[in-house]
Amino acid sequence: MSEELKRIINVEDSVLARVYQRFPVCITRGRGAILYDIYGREYIDCMGGYGVSIVGHCHPRVVKAIKEQSERLITCHSSLYNEKRAELLEKLIKIAPKGLDRVFLSNSGAEAVECALKVAVKYTGRDEVVSMVRGYHGKTIGALSATWNPKYRRPFKSLLIPTFKFIPYGRIEKAEAAISDRTAAVIVEPIQGEGGVHIPPKGFLEELRKLCDEHGAVLIMDEVQTGLGRTGRMWASEHWGVSPDIMCIAKAIAGGIPMGVTIARGEIMESLKLGEHTTTFGGNPLACAAASATIDVIVEEGLVERARVLGDFFKDKLLKIGERFGVVRDVRGLGLMIGLESRFDIYNILMGALERGVILLYSGKNVIRFLPPLVIEREHLERVAEILEVLLKEEESRIARP
Ligand SMILES: Cc1ncc(COP(=O)(O)O)c(C=O)c1O
Asked: What range does the domain containing 388 cover?
């Protein structure tokens, strides 16, 4: 390890809050699906910034939009009008599910969720929220109240909202029992990401829609990770033909610049009155310009279809690998959101992949999650599959050793 890298690691480790699982690599540059470390070494990026890099790193159109906007105007509070914000809003409405036509702009996924929860409570005049076991919606207090993982919740239990309850993802009878005339909202990821890449069983999302309609509750679809083409449809909920009342978007929306979007049916969002929910940076022209260019890239470069085709190709490869290795318990996903579940902790596989030039992502201790940029090349995915095969072979012989 060079002195420079040692110094960087030392500074970050001694100053940055110790809340992230860290990999011993310093990334300084990126292009498309490739990242470069401080030594100029290449990595195929299957982490994609936890799902942020849908259009790839430093997409030239996004870079151009950011450059141009940064020379014109970076900040402009939403109490003033701005042409880039208007441009983005028009594009958002065009790609959003039918009927969702009022937008609140913020700065992260958790913020998009906070807004959705407040709107739902304001609109219904109720305070119960039904969320899912293994569901993940962020770590601010409202979002954390809807997030299931006890590891994240336990230390803050006394601050969490007591009227939120959890039902097993996919269990219709539990949903029927939990959703009532006291329910303000049901919040759900159309495919669970952080919880391990779980696809809902047939009929589940449709039933949630029906139950919300019957009881006058609001259906919040959290598409922070699944949205914008990731799963081979613009919105993952389209796979099941279900339209939400409120949708949360973030991660990829601004090509890597922070942005959160809460989009709702007009009459629902309009229940929020002047000043009841605002944020200083929300809708700043720099993020809006980046988001506007990102949407153009997704639509004009056919990335939604690309995710479907490449996702089918890669999942097929992983399924075939899975058949040959007993350590693989399951391969699942849609588009380029794929999970490979191992029977064992995947730490060695993640580190082995890093040594061989592939950056993978955890989903719990035993699921490898693939969230590569949708611009990734087929050859990159082939290379990742080859490396994975080598690592699984090593893992099996390691486990077989007495
Ligand atoms: C489905 C979902 N919702 C919300 C969030 C929170 O987003 P952020 O980390 O930007 O607050 C995430 C982040 O992983 C997510 O996957």
From this structure: 3-55+302-400
Task: State in Å: Cα 193 to ligand 1 middle.
Answer: 9
Instruction: State the Cα angle at 225 between 257 and 337, rounded to 5°.
Output: 120
Task: Classify residue 114 as exposed, middle or buried by CB count within 10 Å of its CB (0-12, 13-18, 19+).
Answer: buried
Give residue for tokens 């230390």.
Answer: 155
Q: What is the pLDDT of residues 60-94, one digit of tens each?
A: 999 999 999 999 999 999 999 999 999 999 999 99
Count CA atoms within 13 Å of residue 391 on its CB side: 24
108 CB less than 6 Å from ligand 1? yes
The alpha carbon of 190 and the centre of ligand 1 are apart by a number of angstroms equal to 13
Query: What residue has token string 């989009």?
Result: 263
CATH number of the domain residue 313 falls in: 3.90.1150.10
Question: Strand pairing partners for 131?
Answer: 166
pLDDT, tens digit, 9 for 90 and up, residues 33-68: 999 999 999 999 999 999 999 999 999 999 999 999
Which atom of ligand 1 approaches the CA of 139 most closely?
11
Using an 8 Å Cβ cutoff, are 195 and 336 in contact? Answer: no
Q: Residue 138: CB within 6 Å of ligand 1?
A: yes
